Amino acid sequence: MKVLVVDDSGVMRKIIVRALNACGIKDTFEARDGVDGWTQFQATPFDLVLTDWNMPEMSGLEFLKEIRGSGSTVPVIMVTTEGEKGRVIEAIQAGVTDYLCKPFEQEDLQRKLDKYVAV
Amino acid sequence: MISTEDILTITENVFTTMIDSPVELDNDESDLAAHAPITGCVQIAGEWSGAVLVQTTGDFATQAASKMLMLDQAEVCIEDRQDTMAEIANMIGGNIKSLVPGPSTLSLPTVTTGEDFDIRIFGTTVENSVAMTANGQQLKVIVCRGCE
Amino acid sequence: MTEMAGQDILAEVLQRNSSLFQSPRETQETKDLPEGIQTCVEASTVQVFKTMCGIDLTRNERIDGRCDAFNFDASGIVTITGATQATVAVRFPKQLALACTNALLGKTSDRIDEEVVDVIGEIANMVVGGAKERFAAPNLTLGLPLVVTGSGHRVLMPPQVNILSSLFSSASGDCIVEIGIKPSADSRE
């Protein structure tokens, strides 16, 4: 199972990758912004994408729209500080699969991953 | 791109107006850390995001505070130097803000001092860093631009 | 594999927000006061350290002004601009910064390196982001996190700023959160 983690924060990428590893997922890929994420997404068939919202070059929302615009139905989890109702609705309308607000407990992330990760 | 000429013009304007001190470009990129450095920082948020850092020596901050606050150098206390650096960073940052696409807002300034410190601003890259001298002291203005 | 419907996602986030902000969410009457901001920042600080690092912080006292009684090794600073202009500095002793890094990244280090700096910036960003959500004032923009490292460094705010300090203790060391707020009459743009 291939998982793409997109976040401009190296720390946040490491936290998420660590949680993925704890779920038994070793095949993880990291991207530092939406553009990097979209480039990798087009080159590799991913089974799950976790993306931040606020990132340079291309935001997580724009990245999500690119993914859905390509016809892909891959699960995309938005991992973000954007917890306002309007923002969540915007993400839902763009086709987000699930949503996790920062800060989160390790178990919250684990629970989300368990739903989408079939090891 | 904020050019070296723009940064020099703005810095010169602030320093000649406020403390009657001419400013010149300098090739000496030697480390300010050895000279009790003091750094003023403001951020610009909005259509253009980034930060402006003004670094100089403790001695020059004292000279600037003395001129701006009309005090003898011996009377200048650490708070005076910090307030002066905050104001200088605010003025240089405010002028740079007028050169970048708006609308945007200027943050409150912060001033950092210490024997040996590092500053990192997340999500930015250095757009331009200009080394200058004023009254024979090192002065550096760094413009960092948000990656967005 | 389960997919969540849109309304389930929204309900979950709103449920999380309501449990997060049930107390202390500032009322319209109090939210313009500096103490309102301080309460929001304190609640967010405790929550971020607890949820992200598993570290229980206890707020010990509030000081009206700067607290120079301690030397810190690292500071994570985030500015707020808009209707309220403020700067929040989360100040760490080395031991606490290393404990947070260990909790978040599983990395043991004896010095403040790049990864520790990343963690400090991330924590400061989440503290202020969470406080902004709690404060619920419109049109506030957060600046980019700035991290200062160096033993005994000082981070100062300009004299026209009111400074409120909150002192916290934990098993991994004490920390201080300083909030500098420009009086609102001057901060409206």
Automatic annotation (TrEMBL), chain A:
InterPro entries: CheY-like_superfamily, Sig_transdc_resp-reg_receiver, ST_Response_Regulator. GO terms for biological process: phosphorelay signal transduction system. Residues 2-117 form the Response regulatory domain. The keyword Phosphoprotein applies. The keyword Phosphoprotein applies. SMART domains: REC (SM00448). The modification 4-aspartylphosphate is found at D52. Gene3D superfamilies: 3.40.50.2300. Transmembrane segments: none annotated. It comes from the Bacteria. Keywords: Phosphoprotein. It holds the Pfam family Response_reg. This is Response regulator receiver protein. It comes from Rhodopirellula europaea 6C. The lineage of its organism: Bacteria, Pseudomonadati, Planctomycetota, Planctomycetia, Pirellulales.
UniProtKB/TrEMBL annotation, chain B:
Pfam families: CheX. Signal peptide: none annotated. GO terms for biological process: chemotaxis. Keywords: Chemotaxis. SUPFAM superfamilies: CheC-like (SSF103039). Residues 38-120 form the Chemotaxis phosphatase CheX-like domain. InterPro entries: CheC-like_sf (IPR028976), CheX-like (IPR038756), CheX-like_dom (IPR028051). This is Inhibitor of MCP methylation CheC-like protein. The lineage of its organism: Bacteria, Pseudomonadati, Planctomycetota, Planctomycetia, Pirellulales.
